[in-house]
Specification:
The structure is a single chain. The chain has 418 residues and is an alpha/beta fold. The protein has helices spanning 3-13, 20-32, 51-58, 80-85, 102-105, 121-133, 159-164, 170-176, 192-208, 217-225, 231-245, 253-257, 264-268, 284-315, 375-389, 394-401, 405-415; strands at residues 39-42, 67-71, 110-114, 135-137, 144-146, 150-155, 179-182, 214-215, 250-251, 344-353, 366-373. The strands form four sheets. A five-stranded parallel sheet has the order 2-3-6-1-7. Strands 4-5 form a two-stranded antiparallel sheet.
């Protein structure tokens, strides 16, 4: 399609930006719309994936049919089959009447399955049958029913890793991924960040009947340099906060800094950047690397302490003859591969006093005895701290941990953190 045609689509569906990856995604969506091919939309949370199924539906021959969007991660596992495929009266406790599921309602139209990676395995098998033959069976029924529905799915998790972990069916992945569309994260969209900020500022100025806020040059630089872990959704929220709170409508970098959250996770765990689509199970190699880096830091600290002690001893005329310097870093630490299931060495240590006292100002040196800490313990502790931080609010804790609520519920039950 021409740039003018893509521009019309952007105006119609409220998409802001000129990033090449974004333009490519729109072009693919329009090209595939007239077909009945399944489409899998991938991208981080908050990038605006929900706009693309609507583009596909509106530019297809099904545009006069039903368009139903389903958030698979928000439906409890016990009722999701009933929601999607319907149920017969008396099929389970509380089924006081017959229900027509989303696949029955969307017959002749399009169904958008958001967070498709959160579907339980039995439901994945049912969905695969719909994709292969257009057939499904209601819960509590033995009658096979037919449906003619276009399926568009979206996810912010790495489905290939989910397949490796046994959480997603490989055959379903290839059925859904007939046409892949990747939405780039906001941090890769350069000047689009400023365009989006300007659009949101204008919208909120109209909504709240006040002058629109504007960015100074240094604020624009700060805005584009920020990593935006929450993507477009986060940018919109911050723009609304500034629009309401700040009386000065010219926003400088110093003002903007007050609204940009400290990126503690990125600073503490640098390997996490760009990998927010993974669960704990797929982040073992990240934990290994972080622990390895921390161990190296402790090794350097030990060397520094020894050098200070040697200098003090030389200054006081003391002799270190006969003492063997302790350099724990002489033997390089071995980090097990990501697939390893053994316990991870950690720097949590117990001090063992050295018998060699050198100076009153410097206490005895300490050798460190390593102990093993299970990855499950690390995971459990991270979840416990997140729950404490958010006072038991599981939704907020799940967002903080960059996992779905369903995964958090499962982990809480598994570790007995109820």
């Amino acid at each position: 399609m021409t740039k003018a045609e893509i521009q019309q689509v952007k105006l119609r569906f409220g998409i802001i930006g000129n990033n090449e990856g974004l333009m490519r995604a729109i072009d693919v969506a329009i090209q595939v719309a007239p077909t009945d091919l399944s489409v899998l939309i991938t991208g981080e949370s908050g990038v605006g994936k929900e706009s693309f199924p609507q583009i596909i539906h509106q530019y297809s021959r099904r545009k006069h049919g039903q368009y139903i969007a389903v958030n698979c991660g928000a439906i409890p596992e016990g009722t999701i089959d009933s929601e999607l495929f319907g149920h017969e009266k008396g099929a389970f406790t509380g089924a006081i009447g017959e229900r027509k599921g989303y696949f029955g309602e969307a017959n002749g139209g399009t169904i958008f399955l958001d967070e498709v990676g959160e579907l339980p395995l039995p439901t994945q098998a049912r969905l695969l049958r719909v994709l292969e033959s257009g057939e499904f069976i209601k819960v509590g029924s033995s009658k096979v029913e037919k449906t003619d529905v276009r399926i568009v799915a979206a996810t912010n998790v790495n489905l290939r890793q989910a397949i490796a972990d046994g959480r997603f069916r490989e055959d379903l992945y290839y059925r859904l991924n007939t046409v892949p569309i990747q939405i780039p994260p906001l941090r890769e969209r350069g000047e689009d960040v400023v365009l989006l900020f300007r659009k949101f500022a204008s919208d909120f100025a109209e909504k709240y009947h006040m002058p629109a806020i504007q960015l100074t040059d240094d604020a624009k630089q700060l805005l584009t340099a920020y990593s935006w872990p929450g993507n477009v959704r986060q940018l919109k929220n911050i723009t609304e906060q500034i629009s309401i709170i700040e009386t000065n409508r010219d926003i400088t970098a110093s003002i903007l800094k007050n609204y940009l959250p400290e990126q503690d996770a990125a600073q503490t765990l640098p390997a996490l950047s760009g990998r927010r689509d993974k669960d704990f199970g797929s982040e073992r190699e990240i934990l290994y690397q972080v622990l390895f880096d921390m161990r190296q830091d402790v090794t350097e600290l030990k060397k520094l302490v020894h050098e200070i002690m040697a200098e003090r001893a030389a200054a006081n005329g003391a002799s270190l003859t006969g003492q063997t310097p302790y350099y724990p870093g002489a033997t390089p630490a071995v980090v097990p591969p990501p697939s390893a299931t053994s316990n991870v060495p950690t720097i949590i240590s117990h001090p063992v006093k050295s018998p060699h006292a050198v100076d009153d100002d410097i206490q005895d040196t300490e050798e460190y005895v390593e102990e093993s800490l299970s990855l499950d313990d690390v995971e459990k502790e991270m979840i416990r701290k997140a729950l404490e931080k958010h006072h038991g609010r599981r939704k907020s804790a799940a967002q903080d941990l960059n996992i779905s609520e369903r995964t958090l519920y499962r982990k809480i039950k598994e570790y007995g953190l109820d």
